[in-house]
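ok posting inputs for the zinc ion job
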Amino acid sequence: MPPAPVLSSFTFTFLGTGTSAGVPVIGCQCDVCTSADPRDRRRRASVCLRFTDGGGQERVVLIDTSPDLRAQALELALDRCDAILFTHDHVDHTFGLDEVRRFNAVMRSAIDIYAEQGTLDFLHRVYRHIFEAEKNVNTSFVARLVEHELHVAQPLDLFGLRFTPIRLLHGRQPVLGFRIEALDGSGEVASSQPGPLPLAYCTDVSEIPEETWGQLGGLKTLVLDMLRPQRHPTHFSTEEAVSAAEKIAARQTLFIHMTHDISHAGLELPAGMALAHDGLALS
Ligand SMILES: [Zn+2]
Ligand SMILES: [Zn+2]
Ligand SMILES: [Zn+2]
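and the output
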């Protein structure tokens, strides 16, 4: 069997690297919020995986739909979305879902969404006009979605990629991270991985439970929450994030979900670690 991945042209792009309020923060005149460095402008956290599958079809998979999704999609000239995976039910990770209706229209097809049951329940409550469209007063232009439930440690294979949901703790709330690897022609994890893979995407985390450490070995890329220098009950601080990254020891670590307390150019990090910024693409 061919050990090489079946997909090609894989690119992992940071659509947003900011905390829930974004940076600049509304009404703030601090040095970071008024910075001229474009890397200090942070939209809400989400990422886009773009690649060509084994059949030659371009594919786009999103992790989370931030409230900035429309602007993020326009910036990247996205014209399709084949699947969306959700990490958890917070507003900064879900309130762009309405925007995907344009992908439905362009692609003339529904979009598969994947999340844990609690997140699916939240989406049903918030997006009643989508999930119970028959109750809308007028027939209206709403997203067409097909739901699928995710379970920790049960891999999801999509278009030649394997997404393994991993458990993270966001304060007291259990949320998902994803370990992402390319598959070979026999459906096994390919022995040679393209670009930044294997990669683990771990946003919104304040504790990595014991059961998860085994899923974070042998990474080329770790993407990890780093909120701000001061401690916080539901996110890793600078020190906690660096310490977790040292323990995980990926070849490169990129931090996300920063507040305006962190200046891109002003933060010094150990070798192999850096802040991500909006638009950064790994391929
Ligand atoms: Zn968040
Ligand atoms: Zn500020
Ligand atoms: Zn959150």
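notes: The mean pLDDT is 97. The CA atoms of residues 66 and 93 lie 5 Å apart.
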